[in-house]
From TrEMBL, chain A:
Residue intervals of the Aldehyde oxidase/xanthine dehydrogenase a/b hammerhead domain: 26-135
Annotated stretches, region: Disordered: 1-23
Organism this protein belongs to: Roseovarius pacificus
UniProt superkingdom: Bacteria
Gene3D superfamilies listed in its UniProt record: Aldehyde oxidase/xanthine dehydrogenase, a/b hammerhead, Aldehyde oxidase/xanthine dehydrogenase, molybdopterin binding domain
UniProt xrefs under Pfam families: Ald_Xan_dh_C (PF01315), MoCoBD_1 (PF02738), MoCoBD_2 (PF20256)
A molecular-function term among this protein's GO annotations: iron ion binding
Protein name per its UniProtKB record: CO or xanthine dehydrogenase, Mo-binding subunit
From TrEMBL, chain B:
Keyword Protease attached: no
Protein's recorded name: Carbon-monoxide dehydrogenase medium subunit
Keywords, sorted A to Z: FAD, Flavoprotein, Oxidoreductase
SMART domains from the UniProt entry: CO_deh_flav_C
GO MF annotation terms: FAD binding; oxidoreductase activity
Organism: Roseovarius pacificus
Domain FAD-binding PCMH-type, residue spans: 1-177
Keyword Heme: no
PANTHER family associated with the record: XANTHINE DEHYDROGENASE SUBUNIT C-RELATED
Amino acid sequence: MNVRADTANRQVGRSVPRLEGPEKVSGRASYVHNMSVPGMLYAKVVRSTVAHGRILSIDASGAFEISGVEHVFTGSDVQKIVPDPYFGPAFHDQPVLAIDKVHFVGEPVAVVLARDPYVAAEAAQQIWVDYEELPAVFDEVEAMKPDVVVHDELKPAGTFPDLKHLIGRRNTNIALDYHLKRGDPERAFAQAAHVFEHEFRSQQVMHVPLEPMVALAVVSHDTMTIHTASQSPSFVRTEIARLLGWSENRVKVKVPFLGGGFGAKLYIKLEALVACAALLARAPVKLMLTMEEQFYTITKHASTFRIRSGVNSEGRLIARHCEVLWNGGAFADIGPRVTQKSGFTAPGPYDIDNVSIDSYALYTNRPPAGALRGFGIPQLVWAYESHTDMIAHELGVDPLAFRRKNILKGDRPQATGTSMKDAAVEGVLERIAERMDWSGKAHREPSGPGKRIGRGLAIGFKASIAPTTSVAIVTVSADGSTILQLSTVDMGQGSNTAMAQIVADIVGVATEDVKVVTPDTDVTPYDMATLGSRSTFHMGHAVRLAAEDVRAKLADMAKSVGESLATTERIGDLFKKKYGMQAGNAVGVGTYIPEYKSPDPETGQSDKITPFWMIGGTGVELEVDTETGKYRILRMINAADLGTPLNPKIVESQLSGAAMMQLGFTMFEEMRFDGGQVTNASLADYKIPGIQDVPQTMENEIVEAHQHNGPFGAKGVGESATFGVSPAIANALFDAAGVRITSLPITPEAVFHAIRAQEEGAG
Amino acid sequence: MRGFEIVRPTTIERAIELLESGDPGVRPFSGGTAIMQMMKTGMFVPERLVSLAGLSKEHSAISVDGEGGMKIGAMATLSTLERNDLVQTCFPVLARTMKRLANVRVRNVATVGGALSHGDPHMDLPPVLAALDAIAILRGPSGSREVPVADLYTGYYETVLEPGELVAEVVIPPSDGASAIYRKTTSRTADDWPMVGVAASLRLSGSRISSARVIVSAATAKLQRITAAEDVLTGQGPSREVFADAARVASAHSDVIDDAHGSSVYKSALVEIEVRRGLRDAFEGETAE
C-alpha cells in the first residue's frame, strides 16, 4: 500500500487504531439489545403467511389465553393515533401494521406485547388471520405487465421532485421509471460494425447484520425517546414526528454502536411500530427481530439487466442501450433512488457517445428491497463487465486491451454529462493489470488433471448520493479537551476514529484525546444518514468546518486575552485567562452540502450529478475443477480510488470486508422462495462467508489519488471493493473453462451444468 | 417458546427411565447443537429436556485394546475426537474429518452419541464410522444391544433407536491395515453441512483388495452402504479402472435426492466423482480433502 507516511503532528493519514476497540473487545460497549427499562414490554410481530391477500379477519383471542400477554394491536389500533400510518423514504407505501391488505409473506399484521419475550413469541402463534388470497407476482420481468398489481395506487412521499409525476398513478407496478439519453443511440447502432446483446440476472440476498434489528421506545409526558440500531437517526426523528404530528424536538432518537448495518438499518424499520405500540400501551416497548425476521424486513434487489452495445470497426464502443429492471419487493423503501442514482452509471466507465438507459423500480410480492452496500452498483457492474469480456472475446481482443481502448480517460464526461474529474478509472484498471502481471507470460499451473486456471478482471464506479446535508459540532472544554458531536453512526466502519482524526488534525490534539458523542438527536446535529459511502466526504467536510470554526474561536479568544493561539502551550490557559477560572466552552459548527444539479427530466443530463466518483475494481485468479464445477479463488486483488486515505488501516479493512461480502453474494448467497415464502431464512440455511472461504491470497490496493474537493483529499470507500468481484469471477471462469455464467450466484452446480452443456455441444 | 423442564440425571439408567415414555415432547440432549436449532425454528417444542451432561464423566472415555480396536464413550465431544492421540494414531481419518466439521464452537460441545442419533443425513461422523465398521452400543429399557452404524438409519431423520434408547458407546474393530478416507463436498461455505459425503475404506491383501467399504451420505435421505460397489472392488487388484467401475456402481445404487444443496442430477454425478477420487485417496493413503 502506498500512502503518506506518519508524521508527528499530522493525525490525518495515520493508521490510528479504532477508538472504540477497547470498549468493544472488553464487552463494555452497549447495544440496544442489552438495554432494558422498568415496565418494559416485549413485542413480537405476527406476520402475513400469504404473499398477496385481503385481510378478512384477525382473531387474537387465543393470544390472551396465554398468561403474561398484555396487548395485541393491529393496523386499526395504530390508526387511532396515526390516521395515515404509512411511511417510507421515497413512497408512503408501508403501513406500520397491515391495513386491509398484505403484500408479501412476512409483512407485519399485528403485534403482541408481553412482559416476557418468549410469552410474546408464543402468543404471536395463537393469532389467527383469515385472508382472501390474491394472485401474486414475484418476478421483476413479469411485474412490468399490470396483470397483478401490488399496490392499488402509487403514493410518492413528495420529498423527491422527480417522483411527483407518479402521484395517484394506478394499475402499474412501476414505482419509478428513469430514463437517460445521450447522443443518438439509434443512429449509432445502425452504423455499428458489431452489435452485442446480453441479459444478466442477479438474485435477492440479505445484509445479514449479525446484530438483528432492534428498537425500544420510551414514552414520557409529551416526548418520546427511541433507542434504535439505526443508520439514520435524523431521518427516524423526522419521520416519527411526521407520523405522530409532533414537532421534531419531542422525539429523541439515540443510537449506540451497531453490530453491522450495510444499508439494512436505514430510514424507518422498526421504529414506527415500537413508537405506536408504546403510545397505545402507555409503556416502554422493545422489539428485537430474530435473524429469520430480518429476511422479511429488507433485502437487496434482484435484477434483470439487458445490455446492448454497438462497436465500430476499430473496436470502439459507439452505442449502448441499458434496460434494468429492479425487483423492489412489496415496499419501495429507497429502491427508486437505486433505480435512478445507480441507474445512470449502467453503461459502465466507458467513453460512449451514444447511450440510452431505461431503469425501472418494480413492486413485486417479495420482501422489500432497499440499500445494500453498493446501492445497485454491484448488480450493474456484474452485467456490464461480463458483457465487456464477452464483446472482447467475440472480437478476438484481449479483455484488458479492449477496456484500455474504451475506458473513460482524464476528465471525460460520463453518460450524464458529468466529468470524471478526480476519478482514477485508468489508475484502478492499470493497478489491477500490473498486480496480476496481465501481459506477462508466467502463469501458474493447475494443481492436477481436470483442473484449469483462469483469470479475470472487472472495474466499476459509483456516484455519491447527492445532494445531502451533514452538520457537526466541535466543542473545546475549559481544560482544552475536545468533544465531537455528530449523527454519523459507527456501525463498524470506523467513522468515529476517522472523524476524530480530522478534528485532532485541525485543533492540534491527539486523535485518541477526542471524545466522540454517538448519535442522540437532542444533542448531535442533523445528518442525512450513514449510507452510500457519503460520511467521509460529507460529514468529513462538516467536521472539518466545525473544527476550523472552533479553532478560529480559540484564536479570537487568545487575541482577546493578549495571546496568540499558535504560541499557547495549553489551550486551558486561555479559558482561565478569559473567564478567571476553568470555565466556558468554545463551540464550532460546520454544515456541508455539496453542489448538485438535477438531471434534465427528459435526457437525464447534468454536469453536476455527483460531487465525487468512487472507483473500484477486482482481479481474480481461480482454479476450476472441470469435473465437479467447484472453483477456488487463488488470488483476489481489490483496488480502489478513494482519494487520499484518512486512515489507511481502516481503509484496507473496508476494502477486504466489502470484497468478502460481495464474494458471498457471488458464490452462494441466495434467498430462496416457495410461493413468496423464504425457505432459507436462517443462518443454518443461508450461509455467509467464513474465514475458510477467504481467497488464498487477498490483496487490497489503495490507488494513489487526490479528491480536490474532498476533506484532506479523501472520499468514500465503504462500497468500492464490492463493484468488480462478481464479474471478475465470471470472467475468470470463462477464461478457465470457456463457460459463461450470466445469473448469480455462480454455484458449483451452475458451473458444472455449463461445462457439461458445452461438452455435449462440442461432442 | 413456552417454558419447559430440564432434568439432569447422573446415571444412564435414570436417563433411560426419564425417556422411556416415548412422549414426543421429551427428548435427550448432550451438546444441544442440533436440538437448539430445532427449538429456535419451532420444529421441536419441548415439554422436558433430559440433559445427558451428568453422564459425561462415565461415558466419554476413549480406549484401545491390544488388537487396536477402539471404544469411544458416546459423550466424548467431537473436539476430543479431533485431538485425542489414540484416535490420531489408530483412526486418523476420524481426526481429519473433524477439521472441517462445522466449527470449533460446535465441535467443543457436540458429542459422538448426539452425532449418531440425530439422524440428519447431512452429517460427517456417521459415514466415517460406518466405513470403519463401527458398532453402536445402544442402552435402553430392555437392556443393551449392538447395531452397526451402517444400519442405524431407517430414513430421513429416522433411526432404529427405540423410546428410551441411547447410544452409550461406539466400538471400532481394529483397522487391520485398512486405509480409510472421508470426502466432503459443500455447496455453500466451507464449513457448511455436506451436500455429498463419501467415506471409503480399502484393505489390501497382497496385490488384491481383500475388503472394501463404500458409504454415501448427505446426497441421500439416509446414510447408505453401497455393497454393490464394494463387490466390484473385492478380490480385484486396485486400479484406476476398478475404482471408476465401483464409482459408477456406487452412483447408480445411491438413492440421491434433490434438496437445497443441489439437484439430484448434480449430486449423482458428484457421488461418482467423489467415490472414484476417494478410492484413489484411500489406496494412495492420501489425506482426505
